[in-house]
Description:
The structure is a homotetramer of 410-residue chains. By secondary structure, chain A is an alpha/beta fold. Helices cover 44% and strands 18% of the residues of chain A. Chain A has helices at residues 3-12, 29-40, 58-71, 81-94, 106-123, 139-150, 159-162, 167-177, 249-262, 287-303, 306-324, 331-343, 386-406; strands at 20-24, 46-53, 76-79, 128-130, 155-157, 189-190, 196-198, 228-235, 238-242, 245-246, 267-273, 279-285, 349-356, 359-366. In chain A, β1 (20-24), α2 (29-40) and β2 (46-53) form a beta-alpha-beta unit. In chain A, α5 (106-123) packs parallel to α6 (139-150). The interface between B and C is medium-sized, with 28 and 28 residues.
Amino acid sequence: xxxxxxxxxxxxxxxxxxxxxxxxxxxxxxxxxxxxxxxxxxxxxxxxxxxxxxxxxxxxxxxxxxxxxxxxxxxxxxxxxxxxxxxxxxxxxxxxxxxxxxxxxxxxxxxxxxxxxxxxxxxxxxxxxxxxxxxxxxxxxxxxxxxxxxxxxxxxxxxxxxxxxxxxxxxxxxxxxxxxxxxxxxxxxxxxxxxxxxxxxxxxxxxxxxxxxxxxxxxxxxxxxxxxxxxxxxxxxxxxxxxxxxxxxxxxxxxxxxxxxxxxxxxxxxxxxxxxxxxxxxxxxxxxxxxxxxxxxxxxxxxxxxxxxxxxxxxxxxxxxxxxxxxxxxxxxxxxxxxxxxxxxxxxxxxxxxxxxxxxxxxxxxxxxxxxxxxxxxxxxxxxxxxxxxxxxxxxxxxxxxxxxxxxxx
Amino acid sequence: xxxxxxxxxxxxxxxxxxxxxxxxxxxxxxxxxxxxxxxxxxxxxxxxxxxxxxxxxxxxxxxxxxxxxxxxxxxxxxxxxxxxxxxxxxxxxxxxxxxxxxxxxxxxxxxxxxxxxxxxxxxxxxxxxxxxxxxxxxxxxxxxxxxxxxxxxxxxxxxxxxxxxxxxxxxxxxxxxxxxxxxxxxxxxxxxxxxxxxxxxxxxxxxxxxxxxxxxxxxxxxxxxxxxxxxxxxxxxxxxxxxxxxxxxxxxxxxxxxxxxxxxxxxxxxxxxxxxxxxxxxxxxxxxxxxxxxxxxxxxxxxxxxxxxxxxxxxxxxxxxxxxxxxxxxxxxxxxxxxxxxxxxxxxxxxxxxxxxxxxxxxxxxxxxxxxxxxxxxxxxxxxxxxxxxxxxxxxxxxxxxxxxxxxxx
Amino acid sequence: xxxxxxxxxxxxxxxxxxxxxxxxxxxxxxxxxxxxxxxxxxxxxxxxxxxxxxxxxxxxxxxxxxxxxxxxxxxxxxxxxxxxxxxxxxxxxxxxxxxxxxxxxxxxxxxxxxxxxxxxxxxxxxxxxxxxxxxxxxxxxxxxxxxxxxxxxxxxxxxxxxxxxxxxxxxxxxxxxxxxxxxxxxxxxxxxxxxxxxxxxxxxxxxxxxxxxxxxxxxxxxxxxxxxxxxxxxxxxxxxxxxxxxxxxxxxxxxxxxxxxxxxxxxxxxxxxxxxxxxxxxxxxxxxxxxxxxxxxxxxxxxxxxxxxxxxxxxxxxxxxxxxxxxxxxxxxxxxxxxxxxxxxxxxxxxxxxxxxxxxxxxxxxxxxxxxxxxxxxxxxxxxxxxxxxxxxxxxxxxxxxxxxxxxxx
Amino acid sequence: xxxxxxxxxxxxxxxxxxxxxxxxxxxxxxxxxxxxxxxxxxxxxxxxxxxxxxxxxxxxxxxxxxxxxxxxxxxxxxxxxxxxxxxxxxxxxxxxxxxxxxxxxxxxxxxxxxxxxxxxxxxxxxxxxxxxxxxxxxxxxxxxxxxxxxxxxxxxxxxxxxxxxxxxxxxxxxxxxxxxxxxxxxxxxxxxxxxxxxxxxxxxxxxxxxxxxxxxxxxxxxxxxxxxxxxxxxxxxxxxxxxxxxxxxxxxxxxxxxxxxxxxxxxxxxxxxxxxxxxxxxxxxxxxxxxxxxxxxxxxxxxxxxxxxxxxxxxxxxxxxxxxxxxxxxxxxxxxxxxxxxxxxxxxxxxxxxxxxxxxxxxxxxxxxxxxxxxxxxxxxxxxxxxxxxxxxxxxxxxxxxxxxxxxxx
Lengths: 410, 410, 410, 410
């Protein structure tokens, strides 16, 4: 691949005039190269790189700083960790987050990042926003919606997409232009406290997953032989203590990622239907999410009525759908969350669970707000005589008398 | 507890005159005692015990025969195994059967049994039907609906419920009257090929489950140390071959119960909201169901569109709800199944899975009807240029321009 | 029909001992007769009749007072008009209330009445509650749930049902015992400000409805020849002004019942599936409800996003279902309402409508919070070039490329 | 506007080489101009104009022929009237078709036309397809999907969109090039037997609709003073006879458009959320659809169970959504229709209705497959004693005992 050819192709694309450009800067290949493109192609007068800390970890942030230095930029660092934990991950838990099995994580962070960057850009008087998504994934759609809503009128630059660059072309350019390139997994490696996305869409259908890929996970067959027991307490839908110690949500998740991971828990290997309705095989690593979501669902079974459980399933499905599809700031989301938050007021309790080579087994459950009342079936003092059910069965069966009269039509 | 007192209470209850009574006879305590009640209390002129083979296993059937002999009755034996596998379990698979996590099994057999008994009773000119449910569970409702629909006008006798007998009263009576009593698990033990119900509602909330309870399952910690690999082929939504050998559904499930069980797979320990909206803790043992349902869901992710997958979730939820609530012969069920069957026409493929101490890991997936097309993202020949997505993102974001104009209202 | 025979039947029924009994007293036949039954049969030591004003109108209340005098009781009168309008009818509007076409009215008042009576009973130290429902309708179920929740442990007396009395038996008894009996429509006549229920279930399938039955309605063919125009303003989902004059909801509904009725608007003639799944033909008269609900739905089309409109349809259906089925105080209701209230924050606007012989035609619509933005399709300055849609169409059609490759399977 | 300027703009757009092009030719401005563009700009070697008769009426077809002559082309005429009536409109009726109030008509015809043209094009060896949609509406998306599925690989030309032409530019070009131009309503006028779309999106928000616009409708205030009575018979969900005479669906609809229209029935004036989520005000004229859909819904209330009615509402909503959004050949559609068709097997009956100045009043309903059984409430022989409901109410209220114990949390 010839660098001149790529450069020519880029030159040929007409781009809007820009003045001061806010960049969602992560330190990855895409955003690093974008800085250089802003200088060479877009001729930006001023570049405002912004890095959002959403819990990607100190390793990522340190690399981001090194690359920034190499690029001679000084990104603003905005801390959104607490906001991510308390306003996004917390809702994912309450909503039993699952989009086809994926607990929606990158889906959320991209939108949080986009909002922070958009708001900062407005505050600093920028006239354009730049982000590093490729054109074939989901993130460009997510960030575009959020940019449009929070910084209406600002130009949106998505160079990888808009110059139609492939990964190898990006690498060729970076080398030629002196842009630092990290080694990453083939399809990328997106870390958040809640769930790590690995090699998104780039692992072949039946390719085995190598052990080195994992950050927390020891696969079940290699996990230790002794089971481990943990106690987790929930209040109003959220985990609030681990083994008796109160912890904020971010800490608690960090701990469970380690504990769950070493016990073989956390692999998600699934088909995912992207925003453009194209399927990819996705690999996620999410020990804490797997444990918390499993217990949260059980606790809802303990504390909510049948009707709440069944109806909420549809609400939860829609919530995860919206997050995944980049609709986190759509008005409907707030209505779904109003529903969900109301249901969680009685979802409180304590669990003791055994973790063993990929298994999460509930040993003990307790709740002061539960609706589990085995005594109501037995205490005659309360007047529940089996014979009453005869009439109940009869009345319940009345419509079948009518159906029998009509003759069943299959 | 004094037997005379119980007898007096029974005497005091007024019962309808009956002539020839068809009995759903399983050989369990309830149905055995009912035979004697038909003689002593209802004064039935003729008793027609009917046993339905729905795959409860030779052990159960043999015991049933022994007890029948002791009671001096000769039950008709109707074989509904194939019908159960091919018309009920098959739909449970296609519908990803899950009522709050329970793959609905007894829920189905009770209704199949009720229909068979009702139809036979009509054929033989009976004027009443008897079944052995207690008054506080779900089965009485299920059987009542089916009796009403398939044998309208026949009297329905449910002695345990209608004389308000407790389990211990039943035992006292049985001993006094010479009715054979099997030793069973506290809350009963309902075996079907698809899922075994254990101690329904009678296991306390935090009671540990003893290993002896299991029929197939070796709990993960005691399961063997070597993983086992199996190949399963699906055609139009149903498993049709195991390790390359074609097998009918009933056989295949029987084999997977053994294979799955010895690898620690099959425990379900859950809260369940009964027909009367009362919660119980339920324990099920279902190795084959767990494996098949997990693969079936994955295969749907492989072969169905996003829209089908998401919309079908609501159809599946309703199907399981209806089965559980005794509405198997309600007209709506046929419409749900028409929907489900249509979706399954392209759900075909082959899986290789590793079973290991409670884990089911997919090693290989293949399908000729899949919609997984990774090449469509990359092949430029097909004209998919990343730049096209710029406009797609723009058009998709138009509503956010309008929302931005209105001012977001949270 | 012999009064002695009925009395004997009543005597034969065993009833629980009661001391101080709170009675939901409306002044109708059922509740008046109940007072006498409390004296003669239940031997209540103290009777506490309670009348709840939910806007049934001065005529009904005056009759209630006259009959109370005749029975020598002095009912407590509790005013719940504002609560009914502001906490119940308002939600019915926001939820586009429709249970199979019925705007749920009596369904709501019965539960409001039951709560008020239960709370007062507890306050006054009663040990039992009495209400006058018959056994074959919906109201007994509604009131039972509410009594159980708000006055747990108190005995619930429903004499008409529990002595299995027919309407004519009630009349025979009333005459014999000197209980005053009003002339009413065959199936009763339940007035509320929101919707009047007429002859519930007692009008035959194809019976023509006589003009005299109507309170507000002049049927279209007899309505006046000139159209009438009204202006209605909505704020956050609720009508707040009529023809420019602010009015509280109760007033505004009262006015629209008159105006709508004289223009032929307000008849509902429908099949309704009762709580026991039995169908009845129901006739309702609801001029204001018809106008307000039609405009509210249009205003939602004006101010909500597509996704909100379509998703809310399922929420609204469930809300009306719960109200109808006596589940107004079920926890799920509060979650549904949290959702609904959140959506209504931008549902504000002004309407001018023409009313003419049964037709409601919208002449003018205005809203400051609307999402109607015809300019976005045309103004090029905003960058919306038709050619962009080519790519949007292409990207949107990608899944069809894959489907075409698989071969369509019908 | 200068014709040369427009021509220059067109020249500047690069278009793919095409050989033999199938054109969806309606005779309207867009498709007529397209013929000339194929000659001048695309340099097509062969043009295959295809006109699909979907019941737009003889007037439209005659004009289409005249314009074809003027353009010197001889379109193939394919008759799809019966297919449209029997496979599309019939489903719209069974599905109570309503997308936000619109009975989906053009939405369907565009997809039927696209399929016919695509199949013919394949048969005749074409390498490209052309259709006349503008870029800002819904039709381009609908036709694109269908073209992609039924003629994969063929080039898709949409000149109005792809040259970004406005209506007035099209007129200028047409005049200059000698292309015949019909006078039409501002936003177009799409006639189908089922529903006529008028001036789509081009009528301002509060613009009054002039009487001349109507084809069938006499507005209520001008409609005749005598009511008219008609009898309509339904079999398995579809109207099959009018006033006792059997008629096929197309005939029956044609007759009802006239009869309904002269009685003031048929106006739909609504907000509609387009495929791109942009709102427009839409005016439709659909007398037959209004009458048939109203009766069909009532008949479902007569013949279906509560559960079928409520659950089907969600199925119907999705069906209309898919039709509207151009997903008529998506696999999910066939599953929805399998559901719907199954429900309709018992939806049969006869109606007598009075039509009067915009009102449709049901005078008489009869059905042999109804579930309306008023006798079941009253006949004691069947054993329905009011007292049974006491226990039913008690059992139904059990969950409220538990909720009362927990303390309600709002």
